[in-house]
């Protein structure tokens, strides 16, 4: 297994306070793939990441990174990993360059090489402008990018990204996604936590949904969405008078009975060809479209359908 | 890991603490302003009342001010450590393949450098204002060494507080609540014989008094091996009690 899997975890349990032990979390992440760890607030995502990053000892279960046990061989495991935590962990009083040089030097790079690697990463992450500014003068997005750059100085084989896009604007979010794709292209194994199904869907080869410290679903994004009930197509005509035409077009193309509510026509979108087909037909019928969206199942819907209970905060063991 | 890795990582992390000063010169001022104010204000405001003349008072109080400042400065280790813990910098360092002790050792090394800077500053300013060192370079170096050893021991208390406090401000509050009364109930600023009897009993055994007297002895007048020995004993006792607790807490926490 360790030949093909960069991360293996079995029955990870972490108890905080008096919370009950759960079944524990099992994970297997193939080399060079992206695992999306999905779950609501307090599900235990960060706790799992911290265990896998050797920052927290599990109370039960074990995990290996590249075959090295995260507890017994923490030092070896640390050689392989990079961590971008949920909250940026850069030294705010150092400049971007200094933050990266610090990491490079700690990893044993000679001075000139550490400086060069820092410049390289700053350029790659569009931080060259802030290179000689203290990190406390950075915007939230810049800080996150610097934090990510810091975790890449040592060219890790395994990268943990804990909610890398939470709090980013859409443009920065897209950039982050591109960066992750680039890293995966270079062969890096990524474990990414997120609260957004869309993000896991876009990036992950495999998704693990956890809640209350246990795995409630595992699968490829498509499989999971299939189980959740898939996506919804929503169409709103510009003119309310077009509503009946829209309804009939959507019904005909999808073969299902659409729901009409507040001028919005919705229908389950089981097939990715549905959206372009609907657009074409409405165009032919000369209907002006006010709003058209493929709405993914929300995380709440995932949870509702997977667990039968809505998301809620509760004390948890991982 | 090679054996040279830990010292190198320690130096790198010490560099990190010191290079901050470059971007935040205010920190250097912070490090310097309190000692300067104390030297100037105490000398000119209290000097006449306490010793009859500012010159005599400076001779008496300067070693005390150095001691008080050294104790306050030892708290910076706790503040810095706590900032790293609460800002997540420690998590980043811990996820790297470096020696477990390097982050703590690096911080302590950097703080020792800062400590030496503020001792030098106070002594230098004192000399400008008329403080006379009787015992030459050897005396000054001896005082430096003693103060650094003592504050290194005291910084274990700071490390413990820094590990336990929920934010850096709490560490500062601790410093004020503990170090202010401790240093003022000593003979650092005022001769013991002006105080009420019950207070004198405490002042005489207060380690700050012993350290202040030992420092006085090294800089001016008769150097006392006994006072230096007692100061070192206190330093050893503080380190013996607090270093193990601090290190255990450090291991549990990080
Ligand atoms: N140091 C700690 N002490 C006590 N409880 C903790 C600690 N860390 C986490 N917990 C608890 O463990 C549970 C899981 O927390 P965790 O941070 O792993 O969740 P998460 O999925 O990352 O949530 P979020 O989406 O909010 O980041 C929560 O109930 C949290 O309160
Ligand atoms: Mg989290």
Class computed from helices, strands and strand pairing of chain B? mainly alpha
Strand proportion of chain B: under 5%
Report the bound ligands by name, code or SMILES. Answer: adenosine-5'-triphosphate, magnesium ion
Strand residue content of chain A:
15-25%
For the largest interface in this structure, which chains are involved and how many residues does each contribute? A-B, 32 and 24 residues
- Rg of chain A, alpha carbons: 23 Å
How large, in whole angstroms, is the Cα Rg of chain B?
19 Å
Principal-axis shape of chain B equals globular
The largest β sheet of chain A comes out as:
6 strands, mixed
Average residue-wise pLDDT of chain B: 90
Structural class of chain A: alpha/beta
| Total number of beta strands of chain B | 0
* Fraction in helix of chain A: 25-40%
A few lines on this structure:
The complex is a heterodimer of chains A (318) and B (254). With 318 residues, chain A is of the alpha/beta class.
Report on the structure:
The complex is a heterodimer of chains A (318) and B (254). Chain A has 318 residues and is of the alpha/beta class. Chain A contains 11 helices and 14 strands. Chain A has helices at residues 45-52, 74-80, 96-106, 111-124, 140-152, 170-185, 197-203, 221-228, 243-254, 274-284, 299-307; strands at residues 5-13, 25-30, 34-38, 60-65, 68-69, 81-84, 158-162, 189-194, 206-211, 214-219, 231-237, 259-261, 264-269, 289-295. In chain A, the strands form 3 sheets. A 6-stranded mixed β-sheet of chain A has the order 6-7-8-3-9-10, sandwiched between helices. Chain A has a 4-stranded antiparallel β-sheet with strand order 2-1-4-5, with helices on one face. A 4-stranded antiparallel β-sheet of chain A has the order 12-13-11-14, covered by helices on one side. The longest helix of chain A is centred in the middle third of the chain and has 16 residues, at 170-185. In chain A, 45% of the residues are buried. Residues 311-318 of chain A have low confidence and may be disordered. With 254 residues, chain B is an all-alpha fold. Chain B has helices spanning 5-23, 25-51, 54-86, 89-94, 102-129, 136-164, 168-184, 197-205, 207-219, 225-253. Chain B contains 10 helices and no strands. Chain B is 83% helix and 0% strand. In chain B, helix 1 crosses helix 5 (102-129) and helix 9 crosses helix 10 (225-253). The interface between A and B is medium-sized, with 32 and 24 residues. Bound molecules: adenosine-5'-triphosphate (ATP) and magnesium ion. Magnesium ion (MG) binds at residues 45-46, 86, 162 of chain A.
């Amino acid at each position: 297994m360790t030949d093909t899997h960069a991360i293996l975890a079995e029955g990870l349990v972490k108890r905080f306070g008096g919370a009950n032990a759960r079944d524990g979390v099992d994970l297997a992440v193939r080399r060079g793939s992206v695992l999306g760890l999905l779950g609501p607030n307090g599900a235990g995502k960060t706790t799992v990441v911290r265990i896998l990053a050797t920052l927290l000892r599990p109370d039960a279960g074990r995990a290996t990174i590249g075959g090295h046990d995260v507890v017994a061989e923490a030092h070896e495991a640390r050689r392989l990993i990079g961590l971008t935590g949920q909250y940026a962990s850069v030294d705010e009083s150092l400049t971007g360059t200094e933050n990266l040089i610090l990491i490079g030097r700690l990893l044993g790079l000679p001075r000139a090489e550490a400086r060069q690697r820092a410049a390289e990463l700053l350029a790659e992450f569009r931080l060259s402008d802030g290179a000689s500014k203290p990190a406390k003068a950075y915007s939230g997005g810049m800080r996150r990018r610097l934090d990510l750059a810091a975790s890449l100085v040592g060219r890790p084989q395994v990268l943990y990204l804990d909610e890398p896009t939470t709090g980013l604007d859409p443009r920065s979010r897209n950039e982050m996604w591109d960066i992750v794709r680039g890293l995966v292209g270079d062969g890096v194994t990524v474990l990414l936590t997120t609260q957004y199904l869309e993000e896991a869907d876009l990036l992950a080869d495999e998704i693990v949904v956890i809640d209350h410290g246990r795995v409630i679903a595992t699968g490829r994004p498509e499989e999971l969405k299939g189980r959740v009930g898939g996506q919804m197509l929503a169409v709103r005509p510009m003119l309310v008078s077009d509503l009946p035409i829209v309804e009939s077009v959507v019904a005909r193309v999808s073969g299902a009975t659409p729901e009409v509510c507040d001028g919005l026509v919705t229908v389950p979108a089981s097939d990715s060809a549905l959206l372009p087909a609907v657009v074409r037909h409405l165009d032919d019928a000369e209907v002006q479209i006010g709003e058209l969206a493929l709405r993914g199942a929300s995380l709440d819907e995932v949870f509702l359908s997977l667990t039968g209970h809505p998301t809620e905060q509760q004390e948890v063991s991982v | 890991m090679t054996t040279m890795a830990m010292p190198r990582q320690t130096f790198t992390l010490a560099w990190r603490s010191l290079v901050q000063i470059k971007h935040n010169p205010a920190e250097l001022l912070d490090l310097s302003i309190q000692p300067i104010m104390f030297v100037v204000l105490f000398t000119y405001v209290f000097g006449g009342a306490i010793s009859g003349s500012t010159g005599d008072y400076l001779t008496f109080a300067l070693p005390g001010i150095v001691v008080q400042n050294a104790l306050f400065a030892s708290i910076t280790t706790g503040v810095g450590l706590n900032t790293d813990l609460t800002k997540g910098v420690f998590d980043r360092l811990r996820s790297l393949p470096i020696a477990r002790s390097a982050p703590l050792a690096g911080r302590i090394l950097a703080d020792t450098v800062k400590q030496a800077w503020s001792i030098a500053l106070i002594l230098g300013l004192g000399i400008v204002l008329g403080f006379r060192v009787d015992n030459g370079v050897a005396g000054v170096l001896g005082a430096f060494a003693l103060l650094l050893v003592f504050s290194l021991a005291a910084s274990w208390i700071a490390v413990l507080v820094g590990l336990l406090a929920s934010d850096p401000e709490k560490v500062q509050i601790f410093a004020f609540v503990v170090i202010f009364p401790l240093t003022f109930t000593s003979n650092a600023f005022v001769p013991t014989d002006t105080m009420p009897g019950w207070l004198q009993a405490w002042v005489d055994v207060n380690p700050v008094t012993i350290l202040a007297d030992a420092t006085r002895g090294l800089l001016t007048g008769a150097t006392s091996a006994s006072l230096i020995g007692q100061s070192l004993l206190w330093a050893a006792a503080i380190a013996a009690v607090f270093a193990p607790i601090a290190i255990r807490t450090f291991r549990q926490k990080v």
